[in-house]
Amino acid sequence: MPKAIHPYEVLRRPLVTEKSTMLSAVGKYVFEVALGANKPQIATAVEMAFNVHVVEVNTMHVRGKTKRTGTSRGTQASWKKAIVTLQPGEQIQVFEGI
Amino acid sequence: MALEIEVEPERLEASMDKAVRRLSQRVRIPGFRPGKAPRHVIERTLGRSALVQEALEQLLPDVYSETIAAESIDAIGQPSFELKSMEPLVVAATVPVRPTIDLKEYTALRAPKPEAAVAEEQVEAALTNLRRRYATLDPVDRPLQWGDTVRADVTVSVDGQAEPHVEEGAEFAVLEGTTISLPGFLDHLIGLERGGPYEIAYELSADFVSDELAGKAAHYTVTIHEVKQEELPPFDDDFAKSLGEDFETAAAVRERIEQNVQAQAEAQAVTAYQEEVLDLLLATAEIDYPEVLVDNEVARMIDQESNHASHTQEGLDKWLQQVGRTEDEVRETLRPRADLAVRRALVLNELAQREGITVGEDEIETEVDRMVEQWFAPQTADQNDDQREMIRGMIANEESRASMRHQLLTTATLGRLTEITAQDEAGDGDAPRPRGTRRRRGRAVDGANSDDAVEEAAEAAPEAEEKTE
User: Fold this and answer.
1) Residue B447 pLDDT > 90
2) Is the confidence metric ipTM above 0.90 for this complex?
3) CB-based contact A18 B44, cutoff 8 Å
4) Topology of B2-98 in CATH?
5) In terms of DSSP H, where are the helices of B36-171?
6) What pLDDT, on the 0 to 100 scale, is given for residue B402?
7) CA dihedral B266, B270, B272, B275 (to 10 degrees)
8) Which of A86, B88, B303, B452 is 20 to 30 A from A2, alpha carbon to alpha carbon?
9) How far apart are CA B221 and CA B199, in angstroms?
10) Per the CB < 8 Å rule, is B31 touching A95?
11) Which fold has domain B136-231?
């Protein structure tokens, strides 16, 4: 049983990169989401937040890289990426508020 | 001239697209390789105003030059832009345009041409100058008078100056109206006899050029070794022969001097007349010209006066400090002169055009030849052709050719102008003596036996050797 996460907490931020911009042309939008969030939760959150219909959600873990500065080493935080496919014709103004 | 240019939205849009492409190459946006970010991303990151600015930078000159061409405006300087409104885009451009000059009925201008009058005294003065050149200095035993030469030890100190200035065996002429050492010093010497030491103390005038010294007390200790009287050679045939020219009699010398003085007076009269007539033309003409011309002239003058120090900000500051004024003050004082210069140049230019006065290549060639000859004048004419060619090459470069052309054109135009104004009046227009083409005067050399001596003697008073602190 997945942990309950409030829909507002699911979506962390939209991911704006070259790749995600290209995906948005075919109706797929990329977000960074809460680590524990599952696909149904993400779908609900997106539908609530942007008033659209989600057809498919793909997720993946992005593992934090080990970074070094001199002798000290550290790890970047791991996070979860979600690629959300909307119903054809629907759009999200992802970049608003950045 | 003020223009109002409206740019169609489509055009602005297209220009902005281009601006985005240019900008995206330069800007690093996380998540995108340089040049790959889409327009809306760039717009969000940089802000729309930055985009517009970048777009305008390219768009304005284009639009501007189109407008200039379409309205056939004769611009002579860089425009300055001001944004009036964004939607739709309206730009106000201020641009200096070619001045319009209306010479009015300049052919009807008349002014009496003054006769060059030579007074007897002028000839006499010139003669005296010539004789003074060959004068001998005889020691005399009497109080010092104006015109004497004195040899003395001088020690001078001014209040507040640490070290007294000492000069031993200094020899100088005591001429009225000249300054040796500090102003007023010579006056105190008059009446003193050989011997000393004399103590002289007096206060410098409060408006002395140097602030440090103005109003301070000056102390002199003077020991006079010799008072020498200037003994002019008698003006007779022997003197005439001693001049080394082919003068046989004093009368011949006198005649030559008279001629020289006359020629000089005429040249002066012509110049004065030209100036007068030019001012007359200036007064009648209607001229409309942009301020930028005057600004340029002022800049040029500053450049000249500061010996090109103004090329760098640093040099300019230094120079300003030297003259003790701010740049604005300097500009303000120069402005009237610059304004006049600009107006004169404009009017002359217009007149040259109207009268169809041009200067041909061959005329410049002649001028160059003349200058080359002049170069060799003192060393007679037996110079070889190689040297001649070399000098020629030095003189006849593009830059000096242009300035020669300008000079010749000015002379010709002024000549034409005087011809016009002198019509129906006394004497119809002698060819004016070209300006600024007089032979360069060298420094006077003692015992120079040449025609120069006679000529120079004719030219005003001798420059007094100045001995300065």
Assistant:
1) no
2) no
3) no
4) Alpha-Beta Plaits (3.30.70)
5) 39-46, 48-70, 120-133
6) 75
7) -170
8) A86
9) 5
10) no
11) Chitinase A; domain 3 (3.10.50)
